[in-house]
Request: fold
Amino acid sequence: MHNFLSEIKTTIKNLLSRKGRSFLTILGIIIGVAGVIIIISLGAGAQSLVVGQVTKLGTNLIGILPGKSNENGPPAAVFGIQIKTLSSRDINMIKDKGNIPHAVAVASFVNSNATIISGRESIDTKFVATDGTYPQVQNMEMEKGQFFTEEEANASDNVIVLGYDVAVHLFPNGNELGQIVKIKIPNNNPSITKDVGSIPFRVIGVQKKMGTAAFQNQDDQVFIPFLIGQRQLLGIDYIQSARVKVDDAINVKITIEDITRVLREQHGINNKEDDDFSVRDLADAIKLLTSITDTLSIFLSLMAGISLVVGGIGIMNIMLVTVSERTREIGLRKAIGATRKNIRNQFLFEAIVLTLSGGVVGIILGVFISYLIAIGARLAGYDWAFIVSPIAIILAVFVSIITGIIFGLYPAIKAAKLDPIVALRYE
Amino acid sequence: MLIELKNIIKNYDNGGLITNVLRGINLEVKEGEFMAIMGPSGSGKSTLMHTIGFLDRPTSGEYLFDGIDTKDFTDDELARIRNERIGFVFQSFNLLPRTTVLDNVILPLLYSSSKKGLEQRAKNALEAVGLGERITFMSNQISGGQKQRVAIARALVCDPKVIFADEPTGNLDSKSGSTVMHILEKLNKEGRTIILVTHDINVALHAKRIVTIRDGEIISDRKVLEEERVHSKEAID
Reply:
């Protein structure tokens, strides 16, 4: 035990006697390890942000969009291209329990930019026209009042539910319920086919503050019944998107198949290549997004790994210098009974202490910088989680030790092979 | 017989140019002897000491140590003999820098198989050379004479059969040198075998036997008469 402890003591003493050089030697390792820690932490943070944003809408959701898309890319509708292949009849077929047994609720959507006017106040925002089933499909809670019912939506009542920010802007006193607001579609909107002027709506509810979900501010929008939005405001007869809530996660895949089959029947499509719609679940979206962040993480980690290799070569270089500087010491140690193995282990140990301390400093630095980035992202309004995975830290420690062994071995063997007489005479 | 050399030959091969450093050395050393190896520089006396001290292997010839033929010893076995049976004292001390006197003396024990009571054994060795008080000093904070005494303590600490001293007074003033020789005499009186390598007859005359070597061969081997022996009066402080 004294042997090992005093070995550590001697090694640290040797390294501390050359503080400046030791520090410069391990700088490459510090940068490499810190880089890997930061990249892994950022990757995990970004992924948690993405997954959090997507799942905030709700789980077990299936989205239906017009237009074909391949497995790995987003559908064209995402880019704002108007495709008219999805109709209310399609959605009614999907709502039919006999066709899609696992669907709990289905909601259709059209949306557009709009100006909401209340007296002299007005706000530029977005309206979402949807069905009364919306609260069953997506996560939403009401601050006050109610969401419109199926009946109100089917009867085309002029009722409106305000997003939190919109409500606060138009009614700072909080007396929204029962008030009349007007919706005006801007003339430059490409979706509209005729100028309808402004249409009055009665406020029946305010949505609770939600923040962002799916990278959109959920508080900066209003909800109106589907048909009014589609026919009266936009003057169109197609559907921009629909969402289906499935009863259980295990039924999501089979429900996607059911929906696809129904839509192909409706559209008279026989093979996959001719699909004019896309059916996706959230798991797909998460998979797509995480695969992008994963690829980036791996690529950047490789770059940081190169820094580790360069750092390792630095270690080897300085250990060779150390061995030649301490040739007489090696000779003496051999003369008083050190075996080759003793000498080899001593220098190997010194290299490992170097790389390991570089690794520890790198971990501290990496965690600190990751933390600063997380704080910065939160200040910028993102729901960013500060994640440092224990695996990353264990990996960093492991990699630093391995680097020490790999790049310390050659100098250590060189030291062990020294002839004691030659070493003792070395000037 | 502690050491028995039979026709030891050592050649160095310097890129095809072969130098005969030792040309058939025959030598016997009994336990408890105090022997000096003398000779001018280049005579082969250092090579002879390195060979006897297992720092180097002979090209040919037979070397029996304590009655055992050493020819087939592995490097690790030789390291163990150097550790347990032999102590070296060098001209230039070879202490570890930035290390205390005590840790310098402990060093050989770290390579030995018995690691019990390290500190006490090192302290005892330092007492024997009169440095019991200075154990916490750094090796570069003490005088040259004290450094050589630390080196002797380091050679002693594993309780070896033989101590090899290679020009132990070469880097010292006469007073410190005298103290070092006094310690070696004392160790010999206590029964330890001492082999001294020197080119200085006044140092060699501390020994009881002088072997002179020239051009790799022993040219004389004589007992030192009691009346010509030099005894160091220098007490250790």
The interface with chain B takes residues 2-3, 6-7, 10, 13-14, 17, 328-329, 331-342, 420-421, 424 of chain A (CB under 8 Å). The mean pLDDT of chain A is 86.
